[in-house]
Amino acid sequence: MKRPSRGGAAKGGANGALQEALVVGSHGRHVVIETPEGERLLAHSRGKKSACVVGDRVRWAPAGDEAVVEALSPRRNLLMRQDEWRSKSFAANLDQLLIMLAGEPMFSESQLNRALIAAEDAGIRAVLLLNKVDLPTGDLARERLAPYRAMGLTVLETSLKAQPDAALALLAPVLAGHTTLVLGPSGMGKSTLINLMLPQAQAQVGEISQALNAGRHTTTTTTWYWLGDAVEGQVRGALIDSPGFQEFGLMHITPQRLPELMPDLRAQLGHCRFYNCTHRHEPGCGVREALDRGEISPNRYRLYEALWDELEAGQRPG
Description:
The protein is α/β, with parallel strands linked by helices. It is 28% helix and 24% strand.
């Protein structure tokens, strides 16, 4: 990790010519930025709190032994979660979200649903990766994902530890040329995936963690990894590894928007008697009629009802 040069084009701060960089690591107020030449620098944003997340494009200038982020370029998208107390931004400017699942431990369908809604809200394509299909619980996990296949989602199956070569062959074309955030709670195989796709990952994360935390160990750092070497004329793929999570709040989304963000419910919109139908109790509801016909999974509908209640309660004052 290098210190920024005090000379050159960036001299002069906000009044001079600023250099461009990519945010490749983030922790608290500090970030690690990478210049177009591949040089990585420790940086901070002006103000008390950093507005940068991994994947952001920024403009920076030298500031003593660090760099200072002076401007944030417009984002294509931002994946975030928000509960009653705080919001958490995962990463920006993503091409796709790779959601890792497994049958041992069995994945939470509520967590999966929340992640998919957040991705849909941000306009980010989601791909599901079911790991550990070689284990006895693989069939049950596959069965639970049937409604998601029916909705048109891509569901990949693999056994990262048992069949690493096959997993590599499956995933390489899916990830090539794309910026992909890998998301999933602990136990789904996220670390195994990162180490399989990126043998040099430990060295990279060690460098960034040391720079961000002055040698202190952290599990809360989001990290950008390049896939393969840069080739002129080709878009270089990247993986972003974010810390595991147990809760995925969606308080930034109104309950009225939920049906639009759930593809199986969205397909039935426009078939209700009332224009402001909540799809919960009104007569002549196209969504509930589709549920009765078996076109919507009962479990998916229960998730919808529970999430509506949660978001509605969060909107009430007091």
